[in-house]
Amino acid sequence: MTDFFHVILTKPLLNLLIWLYNVIPGQDIGLAIIALTILIRLLLYPSFQKSLKSQKHLQDIQPELDEIRARHKDDKEAQTKAIMEFYQKNKINPFSSCLPLLIQLPILIALYQVFLRGLSGNIAGDLYGFVPDPGSINTNFFGLANLANPNPIFAVLAGGFQFIQSRMMMSRNQPGAQGMANVMNKQMMYFMPVLTGIIAFRLPAGLALYWVVTTLFAIGQQYYIMKKG
User: Fold this and answer.
1) How far apart are CA 42 and CA 27, in angstroms?
2) Between vectors from CA 104 to CA 2 and to CA 23, what angle results, nearest 5°?
3) What is the pLDDT of residues 78-118, one digit of tens each?
4) Strands 145-146 and 140-141, how do they pair?
5) What does DSSP assign to residue 125?
6) Virtual CA dihedral for 168, 188, 213, 225, nearest 10 degrees?
């Protein structure tokens, strides 16, 4: 299973990263990571767009869900049944917004291996015939940071931008909205950015750079879809 995952995901992404490193002027692995991130986000754009629209729809109907919960507050079984009937009547899948996360998880796992190999230069035997081996890899991002090592600035940026993204989504909630989902969302808005920052602080800065760029892309996409809606 590990070999299959390597062949279908890790190896192609590694080759794409090295190809970008070879063709982008300056041979800066940071620029190659940014370019790879943008390509991945464009590839996943349709699924993220669908997810954001689903989240927006769920937030728009939050007052009606709160009303159902208040109506059946003393009968949890009736409350659950009424909510499910409401979802079915309005053709809503409450789990559809989780799809991009499920898609992104294996990509993140693969990218972890890609960046470890790429940043260390341990790429021999994994390159396709049409991708030249650059030899040594320049891991200094514009000469300012070594992406092969953890970097606290990138870790803080990764957590900070994720907080901004979460805050943008929460700001659409109705003032005073209650309910378990709303309470959990508020808790996750603070917990996940902190967790992201801690993880990023322990990993090579190249992975944190990926997370910064992909989150910035998501913020722009989220702003566009919410304003358009």
Assistant:
1) 23
2) 85
3) 888 888 888 887 777 766 656 666 777 788 888 888 888 88
4) antiparallel
5) T
6) -30
pLDDT digits (tens, 9 = 90+) for 174-212: 444 445 555 566 667 778 888 889 988 988 898 899 989
Q: Per-domain residue ranges for the chain?
A: 2-228
Burial class, 218, CB count within 10 angstroms (exposed 0-12 / middle 13-18 / buried 19+): buried
pLDDT at 229 (0 to 100): 56
- Do the beta carbons of residue 218 and residue 48 sit within 8 Å? yes
Give the span between the Cα atoms of 108 and 24, in whole angstroms: 23
CB pairs under 8 A, 24+ apart, for 150-155?
Answer: 150/200, 150/201, 150/202, 150/203, 150/204, 150/205, 150/208, 151/205, 151/208, 152/201, 154/200, 154/205, 154/208, 154/209, 154/212, 155/197, 155/198, 155/200, 155/201, 155/205, 155/208
Entry pTM: 0.77
Report the C-alpha gap between 14 and 110 in whole angstroms: 9
Q: Please give the structure tokens belonging to residue 78.
A: 């009736």
